[in-house]
Each structure stands twice: as C-alpha cells, then as structure tokens.
Amino acid sequence: MSRKLRIAIIGGGIGGLTAARALLRRGLDVHVYESSPELKEIGAGVALGANAMKALRSLDLEAPVRQIGYQSPFQQLRSWKGRMISRTDPAASAERYGASACTIHRADLLDVLAESVPADIVTLSARCDSVTPGDSGAAAHFTDGTEIDADVVVGADGIHSAVRTSLFGPDAPRFTGKICYRSVIPVAELPARRLEPYEGLWLGPHGTIVNYGVRRGELLNVVAHYEDATYKHESWIAECDREEILERYRRWHPALGETFAAGDLWYKWALYDRDPIPAWTRGRVTILGDAAHPMLPYLGQGAGQAIEDGCVLAAALDKLSDDPGGALDLYEQSRRPRASRVVLTSRARGDDNHLVSPVAALRRDVLIAVRKRFSSDLSGRGESWIADYDAGSPSALAG
Q1: Three-state SS across 329-344?
Q2: In this predicted model, what pLDDT tens digit does every residue of 179-215 receive, in sequence order?
Q3: Confidence (pTM)
Q4: Other C-beta atoms lying within 10 Å of the C-beta of residue 25
C-alpha cells in the first residue's frame, strides 16, 4: 500500500491519545474525534505501574510524565489497623522490571499526551453514535449527522463505548456490591504536612483504601473502597458527605481519619463488573482501553492496559500496513488474552483485599511476605507477569 493508512480514533482520552502518539511515530495518518468540547479527564489520580512506564518510555513520554507525577519512596501495604505487611523500594522495581511505578493526576497525564500530538489532528465536540465496519474500510457516524471514512476506525471511547455497542451490542454490567469514595487533598492540609504515614494501600474487612501522591507530591489522591449493596449509581461525579466516609472507616487506623477529615470534596460511585468479551474487532473496526476491557480498579491497571493497547496497535498496523485487516487480527491476538487475564485478576483481587475473617486475612498477609522474601515477585501477590511486560518490545506482538 503506497499511501499512508488513514486511522480514525474515536475518543481523546488516555487510550485514544496514546494510540495517536504511537501511530504518528509509525508514520500513519491519524485523526482523533472527541465528544467533549475540550480534551479533559474526569476523576483524580491514576497509577502507572512498571509496565505502563515502559510503554510510555517507548513513546518518549516517560520523562515528562515523571516530571509532573510522583514516585513514592516506598510502595507500602498495610493492614487496616496500620500493621506493615510489605514495603518495596522503587529501585528494586526498576532493577527487577526495568522501570518503577509512578502516580499522576489524570488531567496531568492527559495534558502530556495531548501535547505530544499535533492539535490539528483532533476534532472536538464530535460525538460518535455508531460505526460501519467493512472489509476494505470503515465509517464512523456522528450525532450531528456527519460521517467520516477511514481505512481503520479505533474505538477508544471509554466504558460506555458507542463503538463497542455498535459492533457487539450493549454490555451486561453486574453490580459488585462494592462502592468507591474519592477525594484529592492538598498535602499541606494533612496534619503532618507530608505524605507519610498517609500514603499506601490499606486492606481491611469489607474495604480497601489507596492513598498516593500526585502532582509532584503536592496532592494526595484518596480512593476508599467499601462493601455496600444499597448504592448502585455508577457515575463518577456524584458528590457525597464527608461525614459518611468518616463513619465508614472510624474503626480503621487514626491516620486515615485524619486524612479524610482534611478532604473538603468527596465523590462516590458504585463498582460494576463486566466479563471479558470474546472479540474486539469486526472488519476494519477495533476497540481499545475501557471500550475493550473495562476492569475493576484493584490492580491499578486501567490506564496501563489502555496505554499498552495503543503501543501494540501501532506496532501491528506498522508491521502489516499492506493488510490492515490482518494487522487488527494481530493486535487482538496480541492484546486480548493479556487484557482479559488482567480483568479477571482484578476481580479476584477485590475479593482478596476485602477479607472479613481475621484468620484468612493473616494467612493472606503471611503468604505475601513469604513470596516477597523467597521469590522474584516484588509485590508478593503474583503480579510479576503484569510488570514484566513491555508493550514497546517487538515481542509484544503475537507470533
């Protein structure tokens, strides 16, 4: 094929812009269509594991992400009463996996990605409501009546993806009985005026709390999980009363109560689970990120898997540029088994984090400590297969 492949990406979030960056670096003709009037992210912090940082490195984006993000001096895992279960030095992660983790505000990550692609390849206020896949091309149709044609259409339009629905029908989410609270708190407002001892992952009966720094450590991102079968609203922008959070976790370590009391604005949403889907591609249309593999947040891999998708999609389209259909098959064969495994592992991790029995929780904690000491798995939780992966390597392509 002598001319450049024309790639239309539906969605200008983390996955869509990563894919755009990766495709442009491979010399492909890319355009992004975003439904919002500006490129922005809702939500707060996002965790980027070693695998995500290696993928960003392959796009020359690791340095700018680290510049605005935050790296904890230690990755800490505690019981709900404060007992240290494990503590990992980022230097050990860099040596073992080839990169250390980073945490960043979603808006800051999106800014880095947006600045990495030309502004004129993005069309804003373009809401796609359906796609038409074909064997020699594809079309995307928008709510204003316009449509575009491309050699390949990529749905990166999030958890409620119109592209996925157009291809495969509506999904069937199941309420997990778990909810999340979140807030972003200026570190200067914390009693100790520093992240310690507030930072880390806390495991307790019926709940999990994740606290980490963002924006160079100036802000503390808080995500608190709890089991509650009565609240079923999935929206990320529903506000709630701080007193509800303080009451829910009043028996946990006092440092957590101090943290929560410093947060002025809190949000609450219900967690819904979705099974891995059996296909991502029809004709010349495929999907990536949350459109392809929405997952529970217990592994902190949502953004990382979307970033991996973008890198591997670009590599497949570059390798088989004369056969776009074959390239999409290669992309799906390379990515769907891994992403599906992450989805199912995240589901199981949520249950493991929320153990109610003190005996079962102690058994889990001892197993974590034994694995850390006597194996190469730094997390102690069987996560090395996630961190080892390098989406920028040729080996990321199946076969």
Answers
A1: HHHHHHHHHHHHHHHH
A2: 999 999 999 988 876 667 678 999 999 999 999 999 9
A3: 0.96
A4: 16
What the chain holds in terms of domains, given with CATH numbers, is 6-171+275-396 (3.50.50.60)
Residue 274: strand, helix, or coil? coil
Q: Within a 10 A sphere around the Cβ of 229, how many other Cβ atoms?
A: 11
Helix then strand count (H, E) for the chain reads: 12, 18
Instruction: Using alpha carbons, select from 295, 271, 275, 274 the residue that is nearest to residue 177.
Output: 271
DSSP string, 39-91: ----SSEEEE-HHHHHHHHHTT-HHHHHHHSB--SSEEEEETTS-EEEEE-HH
Signed CA dihedral, 335, 382, 222, 361: sign only? positive
Q: Find the length of the chain.
A: 399
At 34, is the pLDDT very low, low, confident or very high (cuts 50, 70, 90)?
A: very high
Query: What distance, in Å, lies between the first and last C-alpha atoms of the chain?
Result: 23
Residue 41 has pLDDT above 80, yes or no: no
Q: Which of 322, 315, 317, 325 is nearest to 3 (CA)?
A: 322
Just list the catalytic residues. 212
Whether 1 and 144 have beta carbons less than 8 Å apart is answered as no
